[in-house]
Amino acid sequence: MKINHNISAQLANVNLKKIDTRLSASLQRLSSGYKINKAADDSAGMAISNKMRTQIKALDRAGRNALDGDSIIQTAEGAMTEIENMLQRIRELGVQSANDTLALEDRQAIQKEVDDLLDEIDRISRATEFNGKGLLDGSSSRTTMTNSLAIRSISASMDVPLGEYTITVEDIAMPAKNSLSYDIPSVVSINGYTIEIGPDESVQSVNKRLIEICDSMGIDAEASGTSLELTTRAKGSAQQIAVRSAGEEEVDFGDPGIDAVINLGDEFAPEDSFSYSASGALITIVGSGGFEMQIDTSNAEGGEEGIVRVEDAGYMVLQIGANEHQTLEMDIYELTCQSLSLRDIDGVNQINACTQAGATHMISKIDEAISKVSEARSTLGAFQNRLDSTRASLDISVENLTDSMSRIMDTDMASEMTEYTQRSVLSQAASSMLAQANNRPQEIMALMQS
């Protein structure tokens, strides 16, 4: 037995410290609810759980991004719905105007409403925004540019490969032209309307009346004495001016309008995979696999060449994943009167309801416009369905990752409580044994007294 070194007490103290450390760890786990409170508890587990936590937070944010995308689509589609409703109204007006029981004054009233509706379509296209970003004015469409002011690029679908495309304008779009001569008195006609010129009218009053009639039909009239040179404001093969001058029995159709004619460059090879349609100066080039490109040649000269460059930018990109490049690219169509072929680049109407032939042509043009708006809405609907599926997938990923992180990080309260109880008892026992070991040197005093 020794006095200077109480080995039994030291052993009891060492065991008490170990048990107290474990007991403190159990208390920390029970109070925090986490199995890993510091790197020393489980360094590998902490590293793995931190990666999972990062992914979970990013997936939550991606889910909110998808909801923002859904809001964008709802905003754009709401505007498209109104545009489609207005197009339906214009078509209804076209059907009404195509009925030959109407007088010119009736059709002029119809054309006034058509003009107002077209103005409203352009206004909605410009005003529809989400967080300050335009949706239907081309701001959220794929970026295209040209090297020439004469050839203006309007749009290119997402299926158009990146690069430069050469286009040569062989023939420019032309308006319809004709001339009209009258006598005082006489009877003449313009596009089916009979105009009686009385014996008491002056040349000035007759010219004024004829110019007003032509203006309502979208025709510019230049008077020279008792003759007028007539030119349609709109260009293209759909434009015509049918006149019957004084003393003539046959109707003269004059020079009809001409659509622009272009040649496609080598980038459009093979040639049988691409075609184009022209509506005046507006050209639509289509190809296989969803290829579609729109250009305007209003300011071009015959034989002029231009290059359209298609960029990988401009469309709306939604970050719908936790990592880089996990995105959804949304190309929202430009829906203006120009892109719908209802007005040209200068704002001149391509449709006119003031004649029976013009109203009939208007019906077909509006059908094409409605079809394009419906296609745009269908595309947005597909994007919205994708976003719904994306959000569901993100929610499942967050749930599974959270479950996995929970198995690494969270305390099993029942098991830890069992450990805590055991260590609490061991701590009490170690404390008691340390007290007993500290009392052992007193037995030496008993030996010395005897």
Shape: rod-shaped
Q: Could you state the order of secondary-structure elements as H and E? A: HHHEEEEEEEEHEEEEEEEEEEHHH
What is Rg?
Answer: 41 Å
Strand content bin: 15-25%
Number of helices: 7
Low-confidence stretches: none
Q: What is the makeup of the main sheet?
A: 4 strands, antiparallel
Helix content: 40-55%
Q: If strands are numbered along the chain, what order do they take across the biggest sheet? A: 3-16-5-12
Average residue-wise pLDDT: 89
Structural class: alpha+beta
Straight-line N-to-C gap: 15 Å
The total beta strand count reads: 18
List the helices and strands and how they pair.
Blueprint: H1 7-32, H2 43-97, H3 104-127, E1 129-130, E2 133-134, E3 144-146, E4 152-156, E5 163-171, E6 175-181, E7 186-190, E8 193-197, H4 203-216, E9 219-224, E10 227-235, E11 243-244, E12 261-264, E13 274-279, E14 282-287, E15 292-296, E16 304-310, E17 316-319, E18 327-330, H5 356-409, H6 413-439, H7 441-449
Antiparallel strand pairs: 1-2, 3-16, 4-15, 5-12, 5-16, 6-10, 7-8, 7-11, 9-10, 13-14, 14-15, 17-18
